[in-house]
Amino acid sequence: MVIPADLDGLILAGGQSQRMRTPQSPQADKGLRVWQGQPLVAQVQQYMRAQGVARFLISANRHVDLYAQYGQVVPDAAELQGSGPLAGLLAGLQQARAPWLFVLPVDVVRWPANLLARLAAQATARQPAYARTPDGPHPLCLLVHRDCAAGLQAWVRAGERRVQGWLRSCEAQAVYFDEADCLVNLNTPEDWQRWQPG
User: Fold this and answer.
1) For residue 29, what pLDDT is reported?
2) Helix (H, G, I), strand (E, B) or coil at 38
């Protein structure tokens, strides 16, 4: 499959950023922290736009007014608050207008130039495709069809929270990227310091 012409982007920024919090920054929200002169959410949006995304959804449960500058905010359903990133993915799939949804976490940086093209080469309407690197799977760097929403909803409402478990349940395809230090996840202040440019 070539890159879909009809494509929405979902930026996952709905977490609590607990591992990024410090006594100096007790309410840290990673997506709004400045990276290379811009908030992380702006960096991810620019990358996705360069990949071909025109319409953006932002999974966010805090600072909604700030995230709304970057796309349509889609909070987790009330009964799924605190259920993890699958709740944000489900909200995105349910609000997507396009058949395909390109998904990235807000705290992942150093993206491969051909990420979307390679995911699109493996994804089908029933089988999402996600990235894998030498560091392991990146299950939320994925391309997924809107037809997967019903199965994901059933999975989450059954109390399941494991992203990789859901991907296995729909026989998702792993796409291997061997670029050095790609898809770095900024989870902690130490990660942030390590990967800060310059």
Assistant:
1) 84
2) strand
pLDDT value, residue 194: 66
Q: Which of 34, 47, 77 has its CA nearest to residue 59?
A: 77
* Residue 2, domain member (yes or no): no
By mean pLDDT, which of 13-17, 36-40, 79-83, 172-176 is the weakest? 13-17
| CATH value at residue 44 | 3.90.550.10
> Can you read off the two tokens belonging to residue 119?
């995911």
Number of domains in the chain: 1
Expressed as residue numbers, the domain containing 86 is: 7-195
DSSP per-residue codes, 101-157:
EEEEETTEES--TTHHHHHHTT--SSS-EEEEETTEEEEEEEEEEGGGHHHHHHHHH
Residue 42 CB partners (closer than 8 Å, separation 6+): 70
pLDDT of residue 6 exceeding 50: yes
Q: Quick check: is 68 in a domain? A: yes
